[in-house]
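Figure 2 data, in text form.
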Amino acid sequence: MHGYGPMPQQPTPSRPSPAALTTVRVILVAVTVLSCGLLGWVPMLRLAIVTRRARDWFLLVAVIALTVGLFAFIAATPDDPEEMSDAAALLMVLWIGGLLAGVITYYLYAEIRHYSALGAPAPYGAPSHPVPPLPYQQHLAPHQQHQPPNPYTAPATPPTPTPRRLDQVRAELDELSDYLRNENKDSRDGEGR
């Protein structure tokens, strides 16, 4: 006999807490900067593992190739700074600077974009799957799905009253104004007698 119980939930990629993501990003950027770009493959490896996109794996291989080339270039240059030509020194500085800037910029851009596409993390204690509406809620708003608020968007503006409601309020104000005029007129007539 087949039951109509709940189906097992498919695992969905979860988003780490913002504090954990920030800590990991700071550590990986610091490792890249402190190694003068020679460990720039580390954040690219993390990015490729997290996103699982072919482009990120290709860029990881490219960064590794650039790093190996930089090692070879440094090994081929003379140890004495006086013997190194200005062009070689400039090339090495540009190579290191370009590797640093490229890796850090792309890593931060791609990881932030990846995790923002996953959505905001669920608050503590909230269910990880959408809760179906109760039967009395289904006929009231069948087209509306409950979505958690996005903290990166502007708050929703309150709905504006419909023109029919405005006409009704205007008519009531006119009626109140006429009533107050009549009361004011009656009180003046009573004093004048």
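Caption note: The helical segments are 18-34, 41-51, 54-76, 86-118, 135-138, 163-192.
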